[in-house]
User: Fold these one by one.
Assistant:
Number 1:
Amino acid sequence: MVECHANEGQKIFPIFYDVDASDVRNQKGSYEEAFRLHEKKFDEKTVQRWRDALRTVGQLKGYELDKETNGYEGELVKKVVRSVLLQLKKNYTHVPDELVGMDHHVEEMTRLLHDDSDGVRIIGIHGMGGIGKTTIAKVIYNQLCESYEYCCFLEGVRDKAKHHQDGLVNLQKQLVSRILKVDLPAIVDVDDGINKIKDAFHGKKVIIVLDDVDEKSQFDMLAGECSWFEKASKIIVTTRNKEVLNALEVTCIKKGLLQAYRSYEPELMSDYHSLQLFSKYAFMRDSPPEDYSILSEKVVSTAAGLPLVLVVLGSLFFGNEDKDLWKEKLRELEKIPNEEVLKKLRISFEPLNDRQKCIFLDIACLFTGQDKANPCYMWDDCELYPRNGINTLVLRSLVKVGDDNKLRMHDQLRDLGREIVREENLNEPAERSRVWRPEEALNVLKGEQVVIPVINDPHPNEQSANAYGGCGFFIWKDLVIWIRRAQRKENRREKLLWIALFVCVVIIFVLLSGRENESGEKCNTVAALP
């Protein structure tokens, strides 16, 4: 038992039943007499090992019947059972067996957590939904909690804080309960909880994980300040919103704790690891069968390295040996994203305000891969305040702006945006706010009877004018049209319609006001934007 405690870290809970702990530790009284008898029957080395083991047990914090419960055995049993259950609940969080490509993340996180500083360390893990932030935090937590007496992993902070009554208070109760290893304490309100957490943390070296935090205030009410913790404590925060981590960094700098904060952004999975993760869920092996190799690679390519999608798709195709069904499902995935994936990714979209949502949907449908300067002209005209909006999208890991100033978006986030727009009207593209498929765009333009003059087209020809049914407009490379249609309804609601025929480089603004000129003809105003 003592060897297991020393070599494997297993817990020992000594129960001193009608005996004093000091007698066990020093081998006095009946223990002294027992060892004299053992020395006559066994060799000296064996007896010494027993003496050392008993001395070790006597030095551990345990339960003494008389001191703990005044001799009441039933109460002592309840106390011991409660403590054991708390210890069993503390140690590990569940991590899937099918982990892939985790070594690099563990290596980077270990480097950030363990440096020359012996102070409190806060590590923020940020990135888009489904990138694996929670899984990384769980793996690190499971490795470290063995070395810490006081541990707590609070999962789903955002959801519990916002969507449950007294959510933050309940989270504070869980935190105090797990740190002090007691039943849920009575906490009146959030301020009372902060005071109880400070008292619980005092003088204790802890490891705490706050998972899926989306506001700085949530961190403040659960982990507060570095001064609450003993040196060498570790706090890990996962978030989709980098604004939370930026605020934490500013706080640490203001307090002169320059070494206290670090951040980590996981990268997307490589093609090799993506195929391996998909195969573990689809085939229960590290690679697909040879005759499913090409199909598997095509399915994996739709995930674009996002672990969440690979797990969902692997589970979707598991046990399915019909290749025609694989091909049909693949065609469906290329047009309509998986609902389970969309549900997880939509969490990042919902907190945006209306202006930010509009910019996100524009990028998803029309401007991925384009210089951000181009759509900013329109967004400025619409009073969407694009610079602030794009900055928010970047901080929330929804959009990236490359060194070449081009807007980038993960394929799954792009598909999320397009599906949100498609849901505006599943059957009529003309009734959606944005149209990005060329064939649908042409049909919408035909229905609108829009006449677009050729602008800056060095090679117009009759064929291009008649190629799409003689609708009276030319098509040239890289055209996007923005139509503002004032609908003649009682509420005078205006509808924005973006139409992408190819890729956005030349942008035309068409105002279809429905007004008539003096000759009774409808008037179309056309303006070319830079």
Number 2:
Amino acid sequence: MDDTEEMAATPYAEAIGPLPVLRDTTTHVPAWERETSRMGVADSAAHDLFRGVDPISPGTIFAKQMDRLPHALVPSLADLSSSITVVRRRREVGYFRRFSSFSEAFHDPVPATPSALELVLPPPYLLPPDGEEPPAPYLTKARDARQGLTGYLVGWHQGEYSSCPLALRGQYYVKAPQWWPDYEVPYGVMAEPPLVLTYAREELRRGDPAAWSVFRAEWAVSTAVALLQAYDERRVVLLYPPRLRDWIRSVGATNIAADARGEPDDQVEGKLLALLRLLDELPHTSAFVERLTNRAPNRRDRAGWVSVVLEVGREGSRALVDEDLAPYELPYSTAVTEARLAVPNPWGAAVARRRHLVRFPGGGDIPPSSAYEPVPPVSAPPEPRPPTLVPPRRGDNAERSQRVPRRIVAADALEHGDVPDHRFDALHHLPPRGVALGLANFLGVDADELERYPAGYLVSALCHLVVDVSQGVLSWCWTVPEEGSTDLEGLLNLVGRRALRDAFTRSLPRVREGAEDRRRRWSEVGDGYPEGPPSRRARLEEYPSGWGR
């Protein structure tokens, strides 16, 4: 019998019977009975786990695991592991047999760093999708299980983990080592746990040096593959910790980028080395992480990646940062450098630095053909205000429907003169942290850029933005024909998020200039502002709140 026959595997549904359906409890007991009747699995560690978690109905725990393994295969006896009684997918057939051979020949202590000699499976490691990949939520749950002081290393197929009581988890799962945080990937990284964790879980729990040496090498390969895939799919570099990058270099970019014949792919190798070199140049501090988080406060994974672009020159591939992360001086791309020079004012960079986060309907960062253009500048002359309509008397419904248009009309619209800027100037000393984060999340801009302005400037600019929008909506209402209108694009052009962001961008520099001018003009009066400029005092006395009625 050759190796191919020994490592052959048959689909579970053909060899044993139909898989249990998780939501159909009537299928759990028959499926469990078929599973326990298999040869060589009754005393396995996998079955001990099922019976230990739920002694009354172990079939339910078995169903939770098999629900995540629709492509499960029944291995030959030579490839049967005690930690899992099936093979999760086709590419893993023969793994446990190879690991057993490696473990028997392993007599040296665990080296300081992993190497390619400790990889059980041969290349290639960058494989195209085959339809058997675990869904992203499974990988996320596996990562969440590794966190905290009581974290455990579990596979993405172990759906029964959440059902296991905390007091029993140490008997069936591998506890995350104390050094694990130095080698963990950021949140949102789709890196598969090492195969040895699936097929040699019991060896890892016992502290077998061969199993742990394979674990380190496979984790380095898995994270390197995730690093390359993140760039190919999203054009980002994942912020791996320094020690994890050392493991990847120790295994070797040449070995990770090798094809099925064992020959390295120069293009993939150069890409991987370029990304690692860029990671060495990025600061790994809490301040830098906060800088990234402020770019998108509503995204939990934002602190784990940076937008990059790969440029190929005479000296080979070079990865450059493709988003403006001022005040950090980093190796920026040409597009970012040119955008810095083209921005007329410092705050305008907030929108430019968010360009990689803009997403339009249908996906992508390019607006569709029907996208609305930004609103015209506020300085444009307003349209003449139409005369006030006098409503008809009661009872004249027929005549009223003919004379009064069906419009929403404001009787007394706000004007920019109704915004008491001097009141907001008093907030100059307040920290703008809360205001900046709120506006950044709403407008989709960079929070760090907003924090350069006092809270009074931000609030005043927001009030001016309300006035701009109200004036535009009022003009739009008076242009609607009496029989209805199809000009909904015009309204969305006024109140859309992009339009509000553009209007706020224009308002903030004017507010700052106005505040500085008022401070100079009234510096002779005293330390503080008076109740208002002379032209506004009469109206402020009439309306103490400071807003026109």
Number 3:
Amino acid sequence: MPNLEHPAYPAATLLHLESLVPCRESQVSMLLSIFGERQQFTFPSIFIYGHTSSGKTYVMQTLLNTLELPHVFVNCVEYFTSRLLLEEILIQLQSCCSETEQTSHVPCDTFNDFVRLFKQAVVSRELQDQTLYIVLDRAEQLREMEANILPAFLRLQELTDRNVTVVLLSEIVWELFRPNIGCFEPFTLYFPDYSIGHLQKILSQNHPPEYSADFYAAYINILLGVFYMVCRDLKELQHLAVLNFSKYCEPVVRGEANERDTRKLWKNIEPHLKKAMQTVYLREISSSQWERLQHDNGEPGQLKGLSAHTHVELPYYSKFLLIAAYLASYNPVRTDKRFFLKHHGKIRKTNFMKKHEKTSNHLLGPKPFPLDRLLAILYSIVDNRVAPTANIFSQITSLVTLQLLSMVGHNDQLDGPRYKCTVSLDFIRAIARYEHGSTSVKTERTQTANEYR
């Protein structure tokens, strides 16, 4: 029995719509009940929000196109000023009912001009007998425009006296939109994130025809088991599924395993999925480069991408501040004397490591450290004298802004700010290799602290 039912639309159309929007049947059903029949007035404005890749844009486009409802779809990032936005709405409105007529550019400087031109366009295109939908994607950009734009769009039905509904799609909640002076409250609808079961169902629909659905579903199950904790973006997971499927099929193609031999298939794909974990979201190499890298059994670091060159853009002392922050985050305080002083005296080796310190600090994560310890390590690893000037402190602030360091606690703490280093060991090694001469030798010596751990 179909989940979508509406007396105004044929059952076959609704069944086709349901197949196009899996795992979003409840949201589509809600929208259908809000829209009503074509000629009926609906809510003046609807606010749809949810995280990235929760299906907001896709569901709205599919719903309006499948039901053949007159609509205008505009991305507010692409049309970033009020004039560009209003003119684009009018241009699409001219062409939404007549594809043969050539659209003409009409200048629109103010919202009053837009209301006047909008009324003329609706009358000339014979849209008075059905609801027109204006969908504004990435609607959070409206907050950067003139103060009257958002309240006017929310009351467009009242201002034009026409059957029009404005749909706002955003990734932030309505409370961050609401102006201080107040405005017309839209109907809000939330799109929750896809669960792991939803992602399994959606991704499994794209299985290649030469393989069975169960075989591809098992592959998607393995993929989600690896990536679900770090990536729940549907688009990124679709990209990863297409990129690594050929490697998963290799034992079957060579005749070394069948489609049900899950253990052999997993052992073959596991190292390649671990490599892919290092470049999730980055897109620092193309798909063809990644496939060639897998074929040659190489490492992702062999191809110079974004992450390999990020440190080049850092100022000179910022690099050493980042190295010092990493050493302070992953080494106990009592080892500073051992690693950073030339004449530290004798240190007893018996019971040097406490019981809980036998675990690698990379598994325990970075520890917070005070500012004075960061500067002390910085003075130790840089050969020339570094004065604690405003330039050094501003670079620390810049590293926090770039999210290479994170501040722990609040600025008003009496004992001073505390920080954590958020970059990986590979990133620090890349910075250390980039510096030449005696400085790099000294930095490599301090890195033995982590390798000792």
